[in-house]
Amino acid sequence: MCPSLSDFLEDDCLGNLTQLEYLSIGGLSEELEAFPEGVLNSIQHLNSNGSLKRLEIHGWDKLKSVPHQLQHLTALEELYILYFEGEGFEEALPEWLANLSSLRSLWIHNCKNLKFLPSSTAIQRLSKLNKLHIWACPLVSRNCRKENGSEWPKISHIPSIYIEGTRVQFSVVFLSSTNKKLVVLTIVRAVEPQILKEVMEWLFKAFAE
């Protein structure tokens, strides 16, 4: 982050980084009320070759929304929305998040005034989303409670969900190759004994076939 940086010299300051896969940007001068045009233009151009897979976007107090230019990053797989803590920040994440068709992981951290996720329709369009992390966001975390949260029905289909450091939902994912010679197994930490037993039984069966 660059808290004293208020502008970029070039309109397309990142345009030549055609193989860029990971970008962390934001936390700019508190004098700014929006991201500089050069940054936003660059982010849009990074979508042209589909190289950018992970984006961390850091807010600051005067920002009122996540930049809508991000909606063009259709190859993006991981999005981190971090430190949008200003009093004027919008209460709901934008509907255009649904355009991030390759998104697999969404991390929302330190957005204290955020109350709501996008609509159910928008989240359902994120068909590849399998991981949601919400941390230090007290209002939206409360609304995402599994027991009685107003936002829970929107996200209940997502395989892995962590709210304020607590795993509230997870799935065990395992794949075997067609020739039965290779088994790839992913188990999240703190798997319950019964589920671990079922996984091991599946493994023995997979190797025996």
Automatic annotation (TrEMBL):
Organism domain of life: Eukaryota
The GO biological-process annotations, alphabetized, read as: defense response
Name of the featured protein: R13L1/DRL21-like LRR repeat region domain-containing protein
Q: Does the keyword Cell cycle apply?
A: no
Write down the Gene3D superfamilies for this protein, in alphabetical order.
Answer: Ribonuclease Inhibitor
Q: Where is the R13L1/DRL21-like LRR repeat region domain?
A: 62-135
* InterPro entries referenced in this protein's UniProt entry, alphabetically: LRR_dom_sf, LRR_R13L1-DRL21
UniProt key word Cell division: no
Q: Which organism is it from?
A: Populus alba (White poplar)
Keywords from the named record: Leucine-rich repeat, Plant defense
